[in-house]
Amino acid sequence: MPLELKVPEVGESITEVMIGTWKKKEGDTVAVDEAIVEIESDKATVELPAPRAGMVTKVLKGSGEKARVGEVIGYKIGRAHV
User: Residue 44 to residues 40, 54, 57: CA-CA distances in angstroms?
Assistant: First the structure.
C-alpha cells in the first residue's frame, strides 16, 4: 500500500514551502528515518525522513516547486526486507 509523503508543518505561521533537493529519486530504496527530500521555508530547511523502509515510487513536486503544508509531494511503498 503506498504511503503518502506530505509536507510537514515547519513553523507556526508557515503555510507554503519550497521543495528543495530530492535526496532520493523514483525507484530508490530508503531506510527508516533516512532523508528523502529537503523542504525549505523562509526560516529553515528541514529534511523529510522516511517513516519506514521502502522505495520511493512517485515524485509529484520537483525541486524548486512550491507546496502547501500537508500537501502530498510523493509516494513510497514499504518493504520489509529493505
Answer: 6, 27, 27
Stated pTM of the model: 0.88
Query: Which 3-state string (H, E, C) describes the chain?
Result: CEEEEECCCCCCCCCEEEEEEECCCCCCEECCCCEEEEEECCCCEEEEECCCCEEEEEECCCCCCEEECCCEEEEEEECCCC
Task: Write down the residue that cell numbers 530547511 correspond to.
Answer: 45
Condensed to tens digits (0 to 9), the pLDDT of residues 32-81 reads: 999 999 999 988 899 999 988 999 999 999 999 999 999 999 999 876 44
